[in-house]
Amino acid sequence: xxxxxxxxxxxxxxxxxxxxxxxxxxxxxxxxxxxxxxxxxxxxxxxxxxxxxxxxxxxxxxxxxxxxxxxxxxxxxxxxxxxxxxxxxxxxxxxxxxxxxxxxxxxxxxxxxxxxxxxxxxxxxxxxxxxxxxxxxxxxxxxxxxxxxxxxxxxxxxxxxxxxxxxxxxxxxxxxxxxxxxxxxxxxxxxxxxxxxxxxxxxxxxxxxxxxxxxxxxxxxxxxxxxxxxxxxxx
Length: 235
Known about the structure:
Shape: globular
Largest sheet: 6 strands, mixed
Radius of gyration: 21 Å
């Protein structure tokens, strides 16, 4: 076998990986996306949105990590008070053949209690969770554009986006196939129509008052509506 001059100069042929690496902008099938993702154990997050690979940049603390933690704490407290619902943090969801996002947070009714999702034998979520929450930089983010349409089309009932740079939290509710903004009550509190008792004081959360936000959540989970929801799940 002959060896080229270039191979002799660098010490041999350049090795070709058995599985190609994921690259932002790749257009892949869901199966190929999963194959490449699985071959890169050091990769923390990649998403397939409308058949295109997205790989977010490193996560900043105050623009993402901190708000993310507060959303998870808020949802986790609701889970603790609502047997039958579950929270997932940064888990992959197989929505359809072209979309496999990795939402910052999901809240869903347990599959065995009649929820929308299924948990596959290889431990992935399949189908749309009832609620998805994302932390975005601004309204220009794909979370409020392409991703929003994907979640709507797949039947995510409620979609929350915390726009950190815009100092705003959007909460969308799926009605008749369209997302509509959820309107606050007289106190400025947003109340989930799908998860009774899931109340959010957006002003408190935006100013970093997690204790205040959890106090309002406590009010929501102390209502008769929440008690009836828990009883329904238990039955």
